[in-house]
Each structure stands twice: as C-alpha cells, then as structure tokens.
Amino acid sequence: MTMKIKLLGCCVLLMFVLPIFISVLAAAEPVGTSKSFRGPVGLVVYSLRDQIKENGAAALDFAKEQGFVEVEIGLDSHYGLTQEQMKEALKQRGLKPIGAHAGYDFLLKQTDKAAEIANDLGVKYVGVAWAPHKAPLDEAQTLKIAEDFNTIGKRLKEKGIQFYYHNHGYEFQPYKNGETLFDLLVQKTNPDFVKFEMDVLWTIFPGQDPAQLLKKYPDRWILMHLKDLAKGVEGNLSGGIDVKNDVALGSGQVDYPAVLKAAQEIGVKHYFIEDESPDVLKQIPQSLKYLSGIEF
C-alpha cells in the first residue's frame, strides 16, 4: 500500500514537473536554430533603425523579445543614440555586440579611433559594407580597394580586431577567365587581415550561387547576413534594390538549406538576420520560424 502511494505521488509530481522541464529546455534552444542548423543567429540592429530613431533604445526591446542574444551594430552611427546610450541599451537587454559596420573613409583615415570605439563596445569584428567607386567597378578600382582593405585590416589586427568586408553586389563584374572582380578582391587581400561577411541577398541578386561561393573561399567567410530576395525579381550589378523586395527568409529565391549547409561546413562563425523591408517587425518572427524548422 505504501509503495502504491509513493508511486502515485511520483506520477502526480511528474505531471506538474515534466511540462515545466520541457518548456525550460525549449526556451533554452538558441533562437533561429534547428536540428540541422546550429547558428548562432543574431540580428543586425540596422534592421530596427527606423524604430530606434522614433522610439529610442526602447525599440531594442523587440530584439530581446524575439530571443536574440547576438547583434551586429553600427560603429560610427547608432541611429540617433549616442555610443554610450547604445552600449547601455544593449547591456540592459542582454544583447551582445559581435560585429560592427563603419564607413570606408572612417576606417581608413581614423583607424585608431575606430579600434577605440570597437574595444569600448566590446566587438571583435569591424567591417565595411560599401567601397566608394565610380560605377561600374573596374580592375583599377578593385586593386585600390584591396590595398586599402589590407591597410585597414593590418591596423585593426594590431589592436586585436578582425576586419571584414560585406559584399554588396557590384563586385561581381565579369573579369578574366570566368572570374569576377570579387574574385580579384579576395585574391589581392591578405587572408589574415581581411575576412568576408556574405550578404546572401547581395550574392544572389547579381547572379551568383551563394553555396558555391562559400565553398570556393572556405577560409575567408566568417560572418553572414541572412536575407531573402522576392520571387520574380531580376537582379543586376548595381548594388541597389527596392527594400520591398527584401522578404522573410524561406519565402523568396534563396535555397537556404543549401546555403546554410555550406556555411556550416566551412565554419561561418556568426549569422545575422538583416531585414530592411517596411514590414521588418512582421517578417523577422517569420524568418525565425522558418530557420527553426529548416532541415538539410
């Protein structure tokens, strides 16, 4: 009789404890990951630039509510906040800045200042997403950009910071032997000083295969922007597009199972959702849901 009572008590206890235990495990799953895709997935704070300009630091509550921990931020611009305000806002919400984008000229001409800000904010990676050029990009301009990148990268490396370049589409002008000017840029930059962040939209829009490009330069890619391009949109080499064509992950043209499989195989370290659309607050949860169910 005593044994039956004990067993009954254990069963009742499990009825209450097990659901809580399961919910805790579920909550502990990193945001945007699945059995196949391990992430980590962060958010590009630029996605919330309009919300920050309107509501200040409170706009970052959205990032916390979605479960993000890692973020990529601006280095020389914080969308209306001061450097100290951004730093404190991230800290209060448990958001960890991993990388930061800055202007090309700022990084080239004020590298020490950039490193000082990066160290204050606690970011390990500092990059640029646009190289000033006269369109269309040509060989001479690409070689000058590569030279500048090597200079910036070497200076930042001395400060313990890794420099990276975020492709933007215009670099894929045809060059020689079936290669593009992006290939030239990779080949002319020092692998220790210059790494790369693939923006998936700005890879597929100019007609490239993201998965194949990752495999072509497996030691150079360290970060990734997760974005999708609306179906039916034809690309070009301009580096510009209507932001309304930036759609929720999984609803556009990108074969994300193939891209993420390749990215994991070569060792991309951090992934960031960037959504520049007017529907950012609606699309980011949709993108996270898609990633949580992805299989490859």
Distance between the termini: 52 Å
Following the backbone from N to C, one meets helices and strands in this order, namely: HEHHEHEHHEHEHEHHEEEHEH
- CATH uppermost class of the largest domain: Alpha Beta
> Can you tell me the number of structural domains?
2
Largest sheet: 8 strands, parallel, barrel
Give the averaged pLDDT, no decimals.
93
Oligomeric state of shown chains: single chain
CATH architecture of the largest domain: Alpha-Beta Barrel
By DSSP, the count of extended strands is: 10
Strand content: 5-15%
Q: At the third CATH level, what is the topology name of the largest domain?
A: TIM Barrel
What strand order characterises the main sheet?
Answer: 1-2-3-4-5-6-7-10
The Rg value, from CA coordinates, equals: 22 Å
Principal-axis shape equals: globular
Poorly predicted residue ranges: 5-14, 17-27
What is the H level of CATH, i.e. the homologous superfamily of the largest domain? Divalent-metal-dependent TIM barrel enzymes
Q: Could you estimate the helical fraction of the residues in percent?
A: 40-55%
